[in-house]
Specification:
The chain has about 425 residues and is α+β, with helices and mostly antiparallel strands. Helices cover about 50% and strands about 10% of the residues. The radius of gyration is 21 Å and the shape is globular.
Length: about 425
């Protein structure tokens, strides 16, 4: 590990940056010269990066006690004691409280509201107009998560909370703070405060009700948690539960737009089958190529040894979902969009496909997110046609991996609406 990189590595990284317009390009280029463990050679920011099945297994399961989730960064500043941040017993307590609402057995109860919000958002589209499916996916995902977990229909509040939510996402996205942790960040205080006030308002409203809905919010209230801790969990679920689904839905639209043959086959299949196997494969393949959470961020608490070297205690460690999913040694033609690689009966080796992480801290909303994507996409493909405007798209590293500058598609209502 840490062999000096040859001069051509730097040049190749630069070319990849220009070509892919994202730091993911240089990262991928670097792996040609490094192994499954390397350090990012940036002045002031030198985290260790691991990827591949063996490293994932260690970081997520077998050696997970040697790493901490809590870090010093804006994610921790914003989500405070959110389940995604804290460690140990505190984490396990919150997770246990929230699991019933996201258990696979609870999911069918959400189908009507998922359909209703999808229908309501798409009903606003003017026939034949160009819509940005990144924005539309965010609206749909946000309405769904707020209704499913907090029984709050935020349709009328969207104009008020849209900007504060985008600011919260910008606040935790990579930026200059990576190099200069205390860099002044003007423009965030007010919107973040507005978001807090909104969430505290929902909690207060619910506390006043004698008979609350049996949803995730009620579980948190009944457990006797303080308003502040409930706010932390709500904000965590709101951001983690909609920004990821937004990216997934938008990437599916982008990939279908770029692959008209698969798009057509998929529309035929959702029209004729109750459960389209191709839709599942498309979702899985989108999650492989563009995993919304492309890295897991850890702080090493005890020296952690991988096949290719040791990461010392105190260092920042990323396990890269993106690099694992693009490793040519695991995936044939790793860069191509090929849903058939997930066809029934084909297996991927354990820990080589990790869009939802793994081990005891794998994504709590994995089943929800996939069911939601299936319902939203199959409904929209049945009700509308989507014509891609063939513009350039690159993977933007924000809080999630997003298709930028957006996914513009001409949307037309289908006459033979089969719903
Ligand atoms: C396509 C959708 C989604 C993707 C790709 C995704 C991805 C992930 C990944 C990779 C992790 C683990 C990160 C790590 O190891 O550092 C994670 C954790 C988490 N996700 Fe998701 N997620 C999705 C949807 C959701 C939804 C719908 C919710 C909430 C309803 C949610 C809530 C969470 C929470 C709370 C955690 C932290 C769990 C813990 O630390 O115990 N996610 N997600």
């Amino acid at each position: 590990m840490n062999k000096p990189l040859p001069p051509e590595a730097g040049l190749e990284a630069l070319r990849a940056l220009l070509r892919e317009r994202s730091p993911l390009g240089p990262l991928k280029a670097m792996t040609k010269y490094t192994g499954y463990l390397f350090q990012i050679p940036m002045k002031g920011f030198q985290p260790y990066v691991v990827y591949g099945a063996e490293a994932n297994r260690k970081a997520l399961v077998t050696e997970r006690d040697k790493v901490l989730w809590r870090n010093t960064d804006p994610v921790t500043d914003l989500l405070k004691h959110g389940v995604l941040i804290v460690d140990g017993d505190e984490h396990d307590r919150y997770r246990e409280l929230m699991e019933p609402a996201l258990h696979p057995s609870a999911l069918s109860g959400y189908t009507p509201l998922i359909l209703r919000h999808t229908e309501n958002v798409s009903a606003q589209w003017q026939d034949g107009s160009i819509m940005d499916m990144l924005v539309e996916s965010r609206k749909i995902a946000l309405l769904i998560i707020m209704d499913a977990l907090f029984s709050k229909d935020v349709t009328a509040d969207i104009p008020r909370i849209w900007h504060p939510i985008l600011k919260a996402i910008e606040y935790i996205s990579p930026g200059a703070w990576i190099l200069w942790r205390k860099i002044p960040r003007p423009g965030f205080r007010k919107p973040l405060q507005e978001l807090d006030e909104y969430l505290f308002g929902i909690i207060e409203e619910r506390r006043k009700k004698k008979e609350g809905k049996r949803d995730l919010l009620q579980h948190l209230i009944d457990a006797g948690l303080s308003d502040q801790i409930i706010r932390d969990q709500m904000l965590t679920m709101m951001i983690a539960g909609h920004d990821t689904s937004t990216a997934l839905l938008a990437w599916v639209f982008a990939l279908l737009g770029q692959h008209p043959d698969i798009h057509k086959k998929l529309v035929d299949e959702v029209d004729t089958l109750d459960k389209s196997p191709l839709l599942d494969q498309v979702i899985k393949e989108a999650l492989r190529l563009y995993p919304p959470i492309h890295i897991g961020n850890r702080r090493v608490a005890e020296n952690l040894t991988f096949a290719e070297g040791t990461v010392p205690a105190g260092e920042r460690l990323f396990y890269s979902i993106y690099l694992t999913h693009h490793d040519e040694k695991i995936w044939e033609n790793a860069e191509s969009f090929c849903p058939a690689r997930f066809a029934h009966g084909r297996k991927t080796p354990p820990f080589s496909y990790v869009p939802f992480g793994g081990g005891p801290r794998a994504c709590i909303g994995a089943a929800f997110g996939q069911a939601e994507a299936r319902i939203v996409l199959s409904h929209l493909l049945k009700s509308h046609t989507f014509e891609f405007t063939c513009h350039k798209i690159h993977a933007h590293m924000g809080a999630t991996l997003e298709p930028r500058p957006g996914v513009n598609m001409k949307v037309t209502k289908r006459i033979e609406n089969r719903e």
